[in-house]
């Protein structure tokens, strides 16, 4: 990476796998300027700064192992190690404290469960990844006949105690095991799960929810949440750029510009988990992926991608792209007719992948948990892909390209991110890994 190449500094995330995250995707963040016909691979990250509070490295789960990974001979024991590390991370009280204290998240789930009381009362529920048991208890409060609360982490031991202390042991059965492996001997009416990772898909826990759905959900049963949408928009963030990069231009009066290439490389190699506001966003977002939780397949999640053509709403420095998501707690799927009406609502509200998207109206009054920059912040914040060198854009200037998120072969819970973007006569590719 030469001085002057695109680069930017941001907190990197910690991984349970430590430096290099297991090796396969090290030197993973690459930004190429095709004009220069150069390709500058970045070194593995140094240990870092901002720590992701929500979970990080997981193991592979059998249903998520892609054919490609199998063909490459990814070793089964390493899957188990990854999985053990993942579930161990969820045995720590801090992560549950943080999630529960995120009131936007927890109250959205509580309100969604309460608003679906008619569909839950006297019914059977599976809580996929129950953690402390909080969502299971909300379901019991609205009259669930039976709740299977499943978690593979040792937090299940505490969940059992919490359930007991609240006098709900006759309704909630806590099962300490992987949802892919535990036995439930009846069909269920409702699946509830808080499965969303950073950038929606990081952690790949949705695969486990799909597994539970396919094993136990009755026809006509409901998924909470019912839909999820991943968005992306170009952003400007001059303060952040200045703080991490321009800082090196003059340090206690010393010209430390020689540090610039390294600062850009180290700071912006990986996706950054940061809160931005609507003021940072340069256009309406595009939809990268819309998911109907009652239909999505595990294979469909192995790679998601979208092309985009975005018009900047203002003159600004383009510093990168932000990704965020929302989930909706829609109405039950009862029959084919309501399925198709729900589908048309989705098309109307969410548009097609890659198309500029105005905030969807909530015409059906369904509860939506949003992590958008213009909404109150959540512990997910936004995921920012900073580019190494800002691009000056004018109002209405077109920014085009494509984004692709693929499960890593190293560990399907990691995401390989391939971003191509062009503006004016310049075209870049940035590759990074979220691990
Ligand atoms: C994001 S936490 C949510 C905890 C709780 N439902 C809440 O809302 O506070 C996800 C939980 O799912 C569990 N989990 C993830 N994948 C799982 C699987 N395949 N089987 C069982 N538990 C799983 C994790 O151990 C973790 O406790």
CATH class of the domain at 19-54 and 227-434: Mainly Beta
Classification by helices and strands: alpha+beta
Strand proportion, as a percent range, falls in 25-35%
Order of helices and strands: EEHHHHHEHEHEEHEEHHEEEEHEEEEE
Low-confidence stretches: 1-51, 56-77, 332-361
Intertermini distance: 22 Å
Main sheet specs: 6 strands, antiparallel
The backbone outline, from C-alpha atoms, is: elongated
Output the CATH homologous superfamily of the domain at 19-54 and 227-434: Hnrnp arginine n-methyltransferase1
Rg, nearest Å = 22 Å
Helix content: 10-25%
- Mean pLDDT metric: 81
CATH architecture name of the domain at 19-54 and 227-434: Distorted Sandwich
Briefly note the CATH topology name of the domain at 19-54 and 227-434.
Hnrnp arginine n-methyltransferase1
Number of helices: 11
- Looking across the biggest beta sheet, what order are the strands in? 2-1-17-16-15-11
The hetero molecules present are: S-adenosylmethionine
Report the count of strand segments. 17
């Amino acid at each position: 990476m030469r001085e002057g190449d695109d680069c930017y500094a941001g907190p990197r995330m910690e991984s349970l796998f430590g430096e290099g995250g297991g090796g396969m995707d090290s030197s993973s963040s690459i930004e190429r300027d095709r004009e220069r016909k150069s390709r500058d691979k970045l070194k593995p990250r140094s240990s870092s700064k901002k720590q992701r509070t929500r979970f990080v490295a997981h193991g592979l789960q059998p249903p998520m192992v892609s054919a490609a990974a199998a063909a490459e001979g990814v070793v089964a024991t390493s899957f188990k190690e990854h999985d053990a590390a993942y579930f161990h991370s969820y045995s720590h009280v801090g992560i549950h404290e943080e999630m529960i204290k995120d009131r936007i998240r927890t109250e959205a789930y509580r309100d969604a469960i309460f608003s679906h009381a008619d569909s839950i009362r006297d019914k059977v529920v599976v809580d996929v990844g129950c953690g402390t048991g909080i969502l299971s208890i909300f379901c019991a409060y609205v009259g669930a006949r039976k709740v299977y609360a499943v978690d593979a982490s040792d937090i299940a031991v505490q969940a059992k105690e919490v359930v007991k202390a609240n006098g709900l042991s006759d309704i909630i059965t806590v099962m300490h095991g992987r949802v892919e492996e535990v036995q439930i001997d009846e069909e269920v009416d409702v699946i509830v799960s808080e499965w969303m990772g950073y950038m929606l898909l990081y952690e790949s826990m949705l695969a486990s929810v799909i597994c539970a759905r396919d094993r136990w959900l009755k026809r006509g049963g409901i998924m909470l949440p019912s839909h999820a949408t991943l968005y992306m928009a170009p952003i400007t963030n001059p303060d952040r750029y200045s703080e991490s990069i321009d800082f090196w231009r003059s340090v206690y009066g010393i010209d430390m510009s020689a540090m610039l290439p390294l600062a850009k490389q180290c700071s912006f190699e990986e996706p950054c988990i940061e809160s931005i506001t609507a003021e940072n966003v340069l256009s309406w977002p595009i939809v990268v992926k819309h998911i109907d939780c009652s239909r999505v397949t595990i294979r469909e999640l192995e790679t998601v991608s979208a092309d985009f053509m975005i018009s900047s709403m203002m003159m600004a420095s383009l510093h990168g792209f932000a990704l965020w998501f929302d989930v909706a707690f829609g109405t039950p799927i009862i029959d084919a007719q309501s399925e198709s009406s729900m589908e048309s609502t989705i098309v109307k509200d969410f548009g097609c992948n890659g198309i500029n998207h105005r905030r969807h109206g909530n015409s059906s009054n369904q509860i939506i948990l949003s992590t958008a920059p213009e909404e109150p912040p959540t512990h997910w914040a936004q995921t920012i892909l900073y580019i190494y060198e800002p691009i000056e854009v004018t109002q209405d200037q077109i920014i085009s390209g494509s984004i692709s998120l693929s499960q890593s072969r190293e560990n399907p819970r990691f995401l390989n991110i391939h971003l191509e973007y062009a503006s004016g006569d310049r075209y870049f590719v940035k590759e990074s890994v979220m691990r």
